[in-house]
Amino acid sequence: MRFEVTILGSSSATPIYNRNPTSQALNVNERVYLIDCGEGTQQQMLRFDVKPGKIDHIFISHLHGDHYLGLIGLLSSMHLNGRKKPMKLFGPPDLIKIINVHFEYSWTNLNYEIEFYPTQTKRPETILDNNDLTVETIILNHRIPCTGFVFRQKKPLLKLDAHQLENYQVPRNQFFKLKQGADFISEQGKIVSNDLLTIKPDDPKSYAYCSDTLANDSYLPQIQKVDLLYHEATFLNDLLIRAQETHHTTALQAGEIAQKANVKKLLIGHFSARYKTLDDLLNEARSVFLNTDLAIEGKTYVV
Amino acid sequence: MRFEVTILGSSSATPIYNRNPTSQALNVNERVYLIDCGEGTQQQMLRFDVKPGKIDHIFISHLHGDHYLGLIGLLSSMHLNGRKKPMKLFGPPDLIKIINVHFEYSWTNLNYEIEFYPTQTKRPETILDNNDLTVETIILNHRIPCTGFVFRQKKPLLKLDAHQLENYQVPRNQFFKLKQGADFISEQGKIVSNDLLTIKPDDPKSYAYCSDTLANDSYLPQIQKVDLLYHEATFLNDLLIRAQETHHTTALQAGEIAQKANVKKLLIGHFSARYKTLDDLLNEARSVFLNTDLAIEGKTYVV
Questions:
Q1: How far is residue A80 CA from its own chain's centroid?
Q2: Is B122 left (phi over 0), alpha (psi -120 to 50) or beta?
Q3: Domain extents for chain A?
Q4: Given Cys at both, which of A88, A164, B9, B148 links B20, Cβ 3.0 to 4.6 Å?
Q5: Considering the entire predicted model, what is its pTM?
Q6: Considering only alpha carbons, which residue of chain B is nearest residue A143?
Q7: What SS3 state is found at B100?
Q8: How many whole angstroms separate alpha carbon B37 and alpha carbon A16?
Q9: Which chain A residues touch B15 with a CB distance below 8 Å?
Q10: Residue B283: strand, helix, or coil
Q11: CA distance B162 to A36
Q12: CB A69 to CB B65 under 8 A?
């Protein structure tokens, strides 16, 4: 089952050096979950071939412009391109007011429905649970209310062992039960244990997205042991004071968070406009947590 | 005196084929007047080296997203980059409400002032008159209230004829009076006619911007004889009915408008996403009005 994230924007507040404001496309089993939507996201989607028609869920972490100013344009384009199916939108309560103001003054009646699910920052909660995954919020510590999101794959069905199915002459109508873990009982009443007939699938994977936060331990429980952690790393650690003042994280701190949370891999992004090249940020994070990569626009990372 | 327009966006409603939503940077004597500001305008400014610090005036024609959704991001970036000087903003009355909603929910106090000048669509009016130019609105015919803008250069000062100044031994402290048209009176009381000492400058130029409108004669008086007319040409004329339904103009009609208004040159833009290449639109407009060009992003057109 596909579970991978494509970076559409990696810049912090302002676009620069061909880096765009934050957005990511998480592809889970050919459904795309869009995470944040900075200005120019629809242009980046065209550039990196992310199909708007595959998106039924959009998650906005907070109401700073570099995380949502591309949303109205994207929703408008979907409308103009004939979208009919509803869009599920998750974000701070005031997000829907912003959207309504725009469509009110442009006299636009969308020809599809926006189903809005407001997020809150009192405590983490599960905001989505479908066939493929669950999504939980992470309460982050930013200048305005801000949540991250953890996407956890559902435990996949067992895989069938074709060779053994033939050996034990299992009829087709039993296949789905086997995938769910049932033993096979033949017409003669003979019981064949499930583990003889199936192959254990990969463990379900998890992806945590931490945008714009002061680094601290409060959200470690939510991201514990995830397979891939995206964490902002706006500054190098020589600007730790600036990071604290602006409620952001340094690359060193992102590495420490990854280590403490015992995650498998770390991806850093939300790079300040002061850094033309990003190697120093990468090296600083790696000095604490070796399995770190830079979030590079257009690159896809398998969770 | 520099008077030229750089195209930042040439697409209609949706970005496509590397074409971005509408925006233009009009450089008049090294001050940049930004006209409309679709999503991604700040990225296009970076790409084509239009300096935000040179912009003190922004004009928004109407509240369809493809004409203003880049504005909040641009204003935010100016704030983050330390802008202190005020920004003069001209647009429909509700524009300021949209801006305020964004900055309210992102808890942003801009460190510079926005001076907002609401436009109206009852009748054309002069909305700006400074040393370099006047700006008048054009009442267009779109689905929602929409104005164009005419930028008219002030009559430039006369140029001095260095050779003649020496001949008549004109002292330096008389130069500015001569530029304004005064005759020179020597200490001996001898009068030297101004036209002997100065060279006639070029005639003042004018640029008219007509975004998003049904083509008709109502606004011809406002754009009569301008040096350069930008006019939307969303469709080819085989889609005339679609153009009328959506309150847009075809390339043929844009050519007819240019001809009737007796302008010197026509620039067409706001191309529909259905046209991958633009030659047919250009040829159609040229079939009526030969001196037509396409608005190509990154290209600069001298008025």
A1: 27
A2: alpha
A3: 3-156+202-302, 159-199
A4: B9
A5: 0.85
A6: B107
A7: helix
A8: 18
A9: 42-43, 46, 73, 77
A10: helix
A11: 62
A12: no
Task: Give the domain A3-156+202-302 fold.
Answer: Metallo-beta-lactamase; Chain A (3.60.15)
Per the CB < 8 Å rule, is A107 touching B16?
no
- Among all residues of chain B, which has the CA nearest to that of A69? B73
* A148 backbone dihedrals φ, ψ, rounded to 5°: -95, -175
Rounded to 10°, the helix A251-260/A279-286 angle is: 30
| Nearest chain A residue to B246, by CA | A80
Phi-psi region of B74 (alpha: psi -120 to 50; beta: other; left: phi over 0): alpha
| Interatomic CA distance for residues B135 and B117, integer angstroms | 12
DSSP category for residue A219: G
Please give the angle made by the CA atoms of A139, A145 and A149, to the nearest 5 degrees.
40
Which among A42, A46, A69 has the least Cβ separation from residue B72? A69
B65, two tokens: 């997203």
Q: Which residues have C-beta within 8 Å of that of residue B239, sequence separation ≥ 6?
A: B250
Tell me the C-alpha distance between A131 and A125, whole Å.
18
> Quick check: A107 and B143 CB within 8 A?
yes
Identified catalytic residue from B36, B66, B132, B227: B66
**Tally of residues, chain B:** 303
A vs B: CB pairs below 8 A: 102
Query: How many whole angstroms separate alpha carbon B25 and alpha carbon B45?
Result: 9
φ/ψ of residue A123, rounded to 5: -155, 155
pLDDT digits (tens, 9 = 90+) for A258-275: 999 999 999 999 999 999
Which member of A65, A70, A76 has the closest CB to residue B106? A65
Do A98 and B97 lie within an 8 Å CB cutoff? no
Distance of CA B21 to the CA centre of its chain: 16
Q: Which CATH class is domain B3-156+207-302?
A: alpha beta
Q: How far apart are CA A267 and CA A245, in angstroms?
A: 23
Inter-helix orientation angle A71-80/A95-105, to 10°: 50
Phi and psi, residue A20, nearest 5°: -105, 160
Q: Which residues of A are catalytic?
A: 66
